[in-house]
Design goal:
- Two copies of one chain form a homodimer.
- By secondary structure, chain A is of the alpha/beta class.
- Chain A folds into two domains: 10-51 and 314-413, Aspartate Aminotransferase, domain 1 (Alpha-Beta Complex), CATH 3.90.1150.10; 79-310, Type I PLP-dependent aspartate aminotransferase-like (Major domain) (Aspartate Aminotransferase, domain 2), CATH 3.40.640.
- Chain A contains 13 helices and 13 strands.
- In chain A, strands 2-8-7-6-5-3-4 form a seven-stranded mixed sheet, with helices on both faces. In chain A, strands 9-10-13-12 form a four-stranded antiparallel sheet, covered by helices on one side. A two-stranded parallel ribbon of chain A has the order 1-11.
- In chain A, helix 1 packs antiparallel against helix 13, helix 2 packs across helix 10 (296-312) and helix 12 (363-373) packs across helix 13.
- The two termini of chain A are 15 Å apart.
- Mean pLDDT of chain A is 96; it is low at 1-5.
């Protein structure tokens, strides 16, 4: 096994050292739990590392909030948390003014609720626009909701190495379009869709747009309010480091909240939950999109990461993210292309999110060998190594080490 | 303020001491975090106390499973957890054989999914039977699902101090009935419905039954398989001590799993989640009822409590629960009735669950004063003090202390 970046050409190894030395966010890496056994972790876009602060926050939550305040903590702190944390997330990460974001449910359930809400607000329109390269849950939910509401899905088949273009959406938009559902950052290629352009085009046809932000939130500039976005949903366990199965977030533009209702009308979305009266009356504002009792434990790690992102600032985070993906592509071009590796992500950083996908015919076996070595990227069928480069927890040296191992594995072991 | 049970008649105070001395489960109280500032906690049926083991489990989960195994922990431990923990819960608490219980979602979402699944399995039947005293979320979800599927709800208005009787259900059952939705233990009165009898009657009409187990699981004998139950759902933050907003559980009888599908078809319920192919194919068995990524942090405290319940044994837990509620009723009759307190729960322990509701015209103010003193019961409108007596964490002395404070408050302060 190479030590550090030994298997990379000297120039590329030295570049990693220089980039770390000049990284204004380098110190943030110390905020995360970094176990010795993991040589390099390139899967921050599947499951972000835990923050050290999260350990302490959970201990405090169990011992004091839950253990000591017990049921009283609902009034004192927890009832407002899905909306308060939503506001923080909106401000630090999503470009959303207060009162438009809530935390809760799984991403799948959140997508279901917001899809249903949107379709019910466009009753006379029979078509939904979506793309075949979107994450499975998005497609499955859409299939089910389209079937139950008698809608037809118009599928875009985008270039897998990039993603859905504005022109492809425009070609399908019409007065029949009820909803457009797309990912802001494509989960395979990392292509950044033209969020404001597509949203504008959809609005010109009278359609609503629901943006899936799973691979965008915490890695790229998500300017929901500026883009006049209608609806958005995303998960918090990727670049928001919320931990395995952490709750989702949902965004509904303030201008739409009065006319939209969601199908899973639970007591926590009621105008007066503790009156416990007959008949559901949706709360005003964003609270109406909450269904059940908010998952307080699951929100705790997200609180830590949102605070850290706010401190570091999203522009600086995005700049480092671009530098990390640029470095990965340079290594791929100079040191891995001769071994048959191709870059399956956009080369223009302006349309590339926080991860890079590298293809190779034998990548599945290569990733298995990397895992055995303690180098942990993601594998995505059919032949992609997906390097999710969480900006605050990933160093250039770590990335160089991982790519050095990949180079060695592809050279020697396969 | 009275110290301990000083304000109770000597005989009742001494009885509490005797009952604690003879309690075979008394030592289990040490397993819970018991802060000094809480004089008595009678709200285990809203939010159970945390276990000390949960503190350590969460620390280990963050540091080692999440922090060290990272994404690999999904394969190693987490993917199966919703079903593995479901099996444990089924065995220790629900009387359900393996392969019929899953953990996930909020109770509200779980009720929505199972209600939809049941109704779609009875397409030609237009009626749902439910009761006006059921918990708001159940009623709101049913309202919404009935509206969207063109069903009519036939409402039973049960005696609020008990609950829905078999005869009341039988009077409404017919070949038009698609679904019966009831709580096993009524959230206000604690009345235990005749689960096997009502299930049998519904089946004779060809209807399905969905049992809400929120106030039953962990407190009473829930014999799902023996009762030939079709569907059940419940929460894990009451007598299962899962913490604020802990995930729900859902039960679908093995004999029905093949014919039922749920509406929120996410990737985790797919037959092959990581194939990420086009078109949703539901997994075989209970996995098809999972929607999104399982909430691993939220499940952790439930793991601890299920283990503890299995160790103590549900029959012993139920016996202590009955003894606790019997004691509360005796104190109410002998020491609180003269102050205007009435028992709003069944007097027959065979049909009374793990809590007791005591009514008084000024109970709202009394509970507010109790909270100020660090004595924490629940208030449920219009005038009920609900004493949720979590069997493993509540001592008779604790209960006596709380009732002594109530007696003093009602005598002196109101």
């Amino acid at each position: 096994m190479p030590s550090d970046a030994a298997a990379l050409p000297r120039e590329l190894a030295e570049l990693a050292t220089e980039l770390d030395a000049g990284d204004p966010l380098a110190a943030y890496r110390d905020e995360f739990i970094l176990p010795a056994g993991v040589i390099a972790y390139l899967d921050g876009n599947s499951l972000g590392r835990p923050l050290k602060a999260t350990r302490e926050r959970l201990a405090h939550l169990v011992e004091h909030e839950w253990g000591e305040r017990l049921i009283r903590a609902w009034d004192e702190a927890w009832m407002d948390r899905p909306l308060a944390l939503g506001d923080q997330l909106g401000r630090a990460v999503l470009g959303a003014a207060a009162g438009q974001v809530m935390i809760g449910d799984s991403t799948t359930v959140m997508l279901y609720k917001l899809t249903r809400a949107a379709l019910e607000a466009r009753p006379g329109r029979a078509e939904i626009i979506a793309d075949t390269e979107n994450f499975p849950t998005d497609r499955y939910i859409l299939d089910a909701v389209a079937r139950e509401s008698g809608r037809v899905i118009r599928w875009i088949e985008p270039d897998p190495a990039s993603g859905v273009r504005l022109a492809e959406v425009e070609a399908l938009l019409s007065e029949r379009t009820a909803l457009v559902l797309l990912s802001h950052v494509a989960y395979k290629s990392a292509y950044i869709a033209d969020l404001p352009g597509i949203t504008r085009a959809a609005h010109e046809s009278g359609a609503l747009v629901l943006w899936d932000l799973c691979h965008a939130a915490g890695a790229v500039d998500v300017a929901l309010d500026a883009g006049d976005v209608d609806l958005a949903a995303g998960c918090s366990y990727k670049f928001l480091n919320g931990g395995p199965g952490a709750p989702a977030f949902g965004y509904v533009a303030a201008r739409l909240q009065g006319e939209l209702t969601q199908p899973i009308s639970g007591w926590m979305g009621h105008a007066d939950p503790f009156a416990m009266g007959p008949g559901y009356v949706p709360a005003a504002g964003m609270r109406r999109f909450i269904s059940g009792t908010p998952p307080i434990l699951g929100m705790a790690p997200v609180q830590d990461m949102v605070r850290l992102i706010e401190k570091a600032g999203l522009p600086a985070i995005r700049a480092k993210s671009v530098a990390l993906t640029e470095y990965a592509i340079r290594v791929a071009d100079e040191a891995l292309a001769p071994l048959g590796v191709t870059v399956a992500s956009p080369r223009d950083p302006a349309v590339r999110g926080g991860h890079v996908t590298l293809d190779h015919p034998r990548m599945k076996e290569a990733v298995a060998e990397l895992w055995r070595r303690g180098v942990i990227p993601d594998f995505r069928p059919p032949r992609g190594l997906r390097a999710g480069l969480s900006p605050l927890s990933t160093s250039f040296a770590e990335l160089a080490t991982a790519l050095a191992h990949l180079r060695q594995v592809l050279t020697a072991d396969l």
